[in-house]
Specification:
Elements: E1 8-9, E2 16-22, H1 27-33, H2 36-41, E3 43-48, H3 54-62, E4 68-69, E5 74-76, E6 79-81, E7 83-87, E8 97-101, H4 106-112, E9 116-121, E10 142-144, H5 156-164, H6 171-178, E11 185-191, H7 210-222, H8 233-260, E12 267-272, E13 278-279, E14 285-286, H9 292-295, E15 296-304
Parallel strand pairs: 2-11, 2-12, 7-8, 9-10, 9-11
Antiparallel strand pairs: 1-8, 3-4, 3-15, 5-6, 12-15, 13-14
Length: 307
């Protein structure tokens, strides 16, 4: 290995980096909600997903392949970036890249350069159980707060767990406990608040939600498309994700405000969905299918300067 080549280069190398995946969040919800905090500090882009479910989309993300805008390029302040993060091993792009990394993924490159990396949250794919895929295994430290294995996501115990969980689970505590909030840090959060069953603290599951949840669970198990869906499923689902995004936005503001006061470095804030979610469009329900509402995702990006 050539030791003269740094592990990290680019104009964003001296930033703290906060990546939040709002799992399953649809682009049309993101655009319609216009969340207060995110809209004030970032720009929303409509992007093409890199996968139609959690596993491939996160594998791509950690490998430096982010969803790209369907039109235009990323903007941070006055700077434009065709690519925000990219592997040095990728085909030469001859374009401005915010952060170039050397190594199998950006998480390991950041950590190997002596910087702080923390991951938290997690849908089922981040479960650290040895029998799980465990997307969090590339992190030196990952605080998993997601569902247990082999429990239905709408089992009362599981719904109760989800409703006790914040939309930004453990992130602030993780950095505080580690004593490394001064940075430079890379904080990754997979937020399950926007993922089925769309429950988090401040966004509880009501009794009236149960028939819709049971329908989605059955449809995504059957996977026999097209699926005959209730005419009001789409409005219900969009309503659930709308509330989830509002909770996420409020908690993000608290997190970023806190972290901003702990470091002299600017924060690159990147909030995106890994894939969308279908609520009956073209007969599809859930994700893991190649249909427009699953393959278009929101991506907000912006910089928060130190106080
Ligand atoms: Zn996902």
């Amino acid at each position: 290995m050539n030791k003269c080549i740094p592990l990290l280069t680019g104009s964003l190398v001296d930033y703290n980096i906060c990546i939040v995946v709002a799992d399953s969040l649809r682009y049309d919800v993101a655009e319609a909600v216009h969340p207060t905090f995110l809209s004030a500090v970032t720009t929303l882009h409509r992007c093409a997903a890199t996968g139609n479910f959690t596993l491939p989309a996160h594998a791509a993300l950690f490998s430096g392949f982010l969803p790209l805008p369907v039109r235009g390029i990323f903007r941070i302040g006055t700077q434009s970036y065709p690519r925000l993060i990219r592997s040095m091993g990728a085909r030469p792009a001859h374009k401005d890249v915010g952060l170039l990394f050397r190594g199998p993924n950006v998480i390991e490159a950041w950590h190997s350069s002596g910087r702080v990396v923390l991951g938290t949250g997690g849908v089922q794919f981040f479960n650290p159980d040895p029998s799980s895929v465990n997307l969090g295994r590339i992190f030196p430290s990952f605080v998993y707060e997601g569902p247990a294995l082999n429990v239905s996501p709408i089992d009362p115990s599981e719904l109760h767990r989800a409703e006790q969980q914040t939309a930004i689970p453990g992130a602030q505590d993780a950095l505080r406990v580690s004593g490394t909030a001064a940075g430079p840090w890379l904080l990754f959060v997979n937020s399950a608040a926007t993922h089925f069953p769309y429950a988090s603290r401040g966004n509880p599951v009501m009794e009236s939600d149960r028939p819709y949840l049971e329908f989605i669970l059955q449809a995504t198990r059957d996977k026999q498309w097209p699926y005959a869906t209730p005419s009001d499923l789409r409005d219900w689902g969009i309503g659930k994700q709308t509330e989830a995004l509002r909770v996420l936005d409020r908690e993000l503001e608290l997190l970023i405000t806190h972290l901003r006061g702990q470091s002299n470095l600017p924060i690159l804030l990147l909030v995106l969905a890994d894939h969308g979610e279908a609520f009956g469009e073209s007969g599809f329900v859930g994700h893991g299918v190649n249909t427009e509402v699953v393959l278009e995702v929101p991506l907000w990006v912006g910089e928060i300067l130190p106080n």
